[in-house]
Structures are given as structure tokens and as C-alpha cells.
Design a protein that fits this description.
single chain; mainly alpha; 2 strands
């Protein structure tokens, strides 16, 4: 089963900077709810959305939505045919449009109240953005990196680079062993030092090439 995409959460915005504004907690979720309400008006939300936020209550966006608890936005809350637009638009261009449309002279986007008037203004912008996306679905897609464009070539180059580095490491370690062996040859330190060098080499290779979590 594919992992859900977590578009946004009120908790992500409830940080020290937000707390210092002195705004009510629910203001950290206004930008999420404006977008979700627009999706609702377009009949783009799934039953899973309403089950999570209101359970058996009325499927409406109240002015006081504190009873909804933690406000989150995940891909399964959006109908499949609408997800490509949300994937492309929400995480980047949406917040810029949101602030440009509703913030005005307010100190930050978090100061924007959740109102019907604000929803009407934003609806015009979002309708236009959706129409633009339908004409050009790649409008907000980030340019691919070389690795994304040529994954096989990049993978081959990484493999070759790893092999060359390993060969170089073997040569360097071999030279080091030769120097050490000449220095301690015939002494009681020969075996312990050799073991120590092998252990250090093994630790270095593991440290350099282990996969990060």
C-alpha cells in the first residue's frame, strides 16, 4: 500500500514564532481550511476527509472550527482526479497566492481571519489557477535534476566512482601496511598494529558508505 502524502498540518505552523504573535491556536490552520473549503465547493473532497474532521456531524465549514481538533491535509482526503493539481500547486504556489490575495497590510499570513469574504476572494484565484493547470499540467512542476532525468546513467557513474575509490583505498592501505611492517618488523607490536589497522580500515569503509536512514 502506497504511503500517504502529508500536504500540511496545523501543528507544522504552531511554532515559537507563531506563539509569539499571540493569535488563537486555530489561526495556524486558516490557510489549510481555506483551501479545503474550496475543494469542498468543487466536490473534490473524499468521505475520508469528513470522517476525520466531523465524524457524523454536518458537512459544512463552520466559522468556529476548534471542535475539529487537529487540522491536517493528506492526499487521501482529496478525490483521485484532483490530486495531481493539489500535488503540483499546494506546497509552493498556493501559499504565495494565499498571502498575496488576503494578507494585505497584516503582519503575516497567520493573521488572516477565516471569513466568507476571504473565501470568495480566494475562490476566484484558485479557480483561475486550476484552469491554468488544466491547460498546462507542468506549470508548477520543479525542473528535474540530472539524476532524475538520467537515473541509469547516474547510477552507473556512482558505481564506477565507488569502485575507483575502493581501488585507491586498497592501494593506499597497502602502502601504509608496507611502511608499518618495515618499521615494526620483528617486534612484538607487529600483530597488534596490523589488527588495529585492519579494524580502522573496516570502520572507515563502513562509515563512508553506510546508508543513511
Amino acid at each position: 500500500m502506497a504511503k500517504s502524502i502529508h500536504y500540511d498540518s496545523a501543528d507544522w505552523h504552531y511554532d515559537k514564532k507563531f506563539v509569539e504573535t499571540g493569535l488563537p491556536d486555530q489561526y495556524s490552520a486558516h490557510h489549510i481550511l481555506y483551501f479545503q473549503r474550496w475543494l469542498h465547493e468543487r466536490d473534490a473532497l473524499t468521505d475520508d476527509f469528513w470522517v476525520e474532521v466531523v465524524e457524523d456531524g454536518p458537512r459544512v465549514f463552520p466559522q468556529d472550527f476548534r471542535a475539529w481538533g487537529d487540522i491536517e491535509f493528506l492526499d487521501y482526503m482529496v478525490k483521485p482526479e484532483w490530486r495531481p493539481f493539489v500535488d503540483a500547486y499546494y506546497s509552493g504556489a498556493y501559499q504565495r497566492d494565499y498571502a498575496a490575495t488576503l494578507q494585505g497590510d497584516l503582519p503575516s499570513m497567520y493573521h488572516i481571519p477565516f471569513t466568507d469574504e476571504g473565501g470568495a476572494k480566494l475562490k476566484t484565484v484558485l479557480d483561475e489557477r486550476h484552469a491554468q493547470w488544466r491547460e498546462n499540467p507542468d506549470r508548477w512542476v520543479k525542473p528535474q535534476t540530472v539524476t532524475q532525468k538520467h537515473p541509469k546513467t547516474s547510477g552507473a557513474l556512482v558505481t564506477v566512482g565507488f569502485i575507483l575509490l575502493l581501488v585507491l583505498l586498497v592501494v593506499v592501505v597497502g602502502k601504509l601496511f608496507d611502511v608499518v611492517e618495515r618499521a615494526i618488523q620483528g617486534t612484538v607490536f607487529q600483530v597488534p598494529v596490523t589488527i588495529l589497522l585492519l579494524a580502522m580500515m573496516g570502520w572507515g569503509v563502513w562509515k563512508a558508505f553506510r546508508k543513511k536512514p
